[in-house]
DNA sequence: GCCGTACTACGATGCGTATCGTACGAGCAT
DNA sequence: ATGCTCGTACGATACGCATCGTAGTACGGC
């Protein structure tokens, strides 16, 4: 039977199932932290293929799964693509200020290490 | 010379050597997160033996080492004891608000789980 | 000096996970 | 339909790490 709705369902934790340790663990990986920073910077839903990551497709899928199952992002299908969005409201309701602090920290660290060769573009507004 | 040269020297990262990923990774472990929360609650230097952790001494040493090498805590010997203190000022200078957000998040989660279902003594004063 | 306490060092072990390659399924274009 | 692109699933692998036990070192008290 060809279901008209999404044939593949994606499991997400509900808001009260989100665990702080899982979120921190998800954000502790450089690849995933970069994904989250990019998503926050764009502020809109992005497909997986938008990101230019230094790993293969398989690993990318793995990282997105970790982010989704930890409750950091939300995923939904749109045709062949899969859109990703930050669960900023859920995270902020559970852990106020945490996501902002991590994003600011990542930006600060990137700026700190990026300075010294680039001129004019600091990347963080 | 005030003979402050301790017989055992402990290596700490300097402030600008602290990496966000390492800090997040250190905080992502339940045992270490609990240690950090306890230290923040007491606000003073605490010996390793102060903590009542559900792991052996060896594992405790390992966790304290991870916390120290990631830059989250500072350790110094005082006689046979080893005192631990949060590097709150360094962390706040590097990643403003991050430690506070994590501590608040941990407290919120502990409170959330403590009220609804009785389970174990996860005492938070 | 001797012993107890506090912590460390080293080795072993089992589990999680980050990584890859390949094979596959779902949708879109021609 | 054929093929192409996007993403998934599964197996394999290697590394990290949380855990333990035991032996050892430093310091203080008796």
Please give a structural write-up.
The structure is a homodimer of 125-residue chains. By secondary structure, chain A is mainly alpha-helical. Chain A has a single domain, classed as Arc Repressor Mutant, subunit A. Helix content of chain A is 46%, strand content 11%. Chain A is built from five helices and three strands; from the N terminus they run ααβαββαα. In chain A, a hairpin with a 2-residue loop joins strand 2 and strand 3. The longest helix of chain A is centred in the last third of the chain and has 17 residues, at 98-114. Residues 1-6 and 119-125 of chain A have low confidence and may be disordered. The interface between A and B is medium-sized, with 25 and 25 residues. Chain A binds a DNA duplex (30 and 30 nucleotides) through residues 7-8, 29, 31, 47-49, 55-66, 77, 79-82.
What's the SSE blueprint?
Two copies of one chain form a homodimer.
Chain A: H1 20-27, H2 30-42, E1 46-47, H3 57-69, E2 73-78, E3 81-86, H4 88-94, H5 98-114
Antiparallel strand pairs in A: 1-3, 2-3
The first copy, chain A, binds a DNA duplex (30 and 30 nucleotides) through residues 7-8, 29, 31, 47-49, 55-66, 77, 79-82.
Organism (chains A, B): Streptomyces viridochromogenes
Domain HTH arsR-type (chains A, B): 12-106
Protein name (chains A, B): ArsR family transcriptional regulator
Short recap of the structure:
Chains A, B: Residues 12-106 form the HTH arsR-type domain. Chains A, B: This is ArsR family transcriptional regulator. The structure is a homodimer of 125-residue chains. With 125 residues, chain A is mainly alpha-helical.
């Amino acid at each position: 039977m060809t279901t008209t709705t999404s044939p593949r369902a994606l499991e997400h934790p509900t808001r009260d199932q989100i665990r702080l340790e899982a979120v921190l663990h998800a954000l502790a990986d450089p690849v995933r932290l970069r994904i989250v920073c990019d998503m926050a910077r764009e502020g809109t839903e992005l497909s997986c293929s938008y990101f230019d990551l230094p790993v293969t497709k398989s690993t990318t899928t793995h990282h997105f799964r970790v982010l989704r199952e930890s409750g950091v992002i939300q995923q939904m299908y749109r045709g062949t693509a899969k859109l990703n969005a930050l669960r900023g409201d859920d995270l902020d309701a559970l852990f106020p200020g945490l996501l902002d602090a991590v994003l600011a920290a990542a930006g600060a660290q990137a700026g700190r290490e990026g300075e010294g060769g680039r001129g004019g573009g600091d990347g963080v507004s």
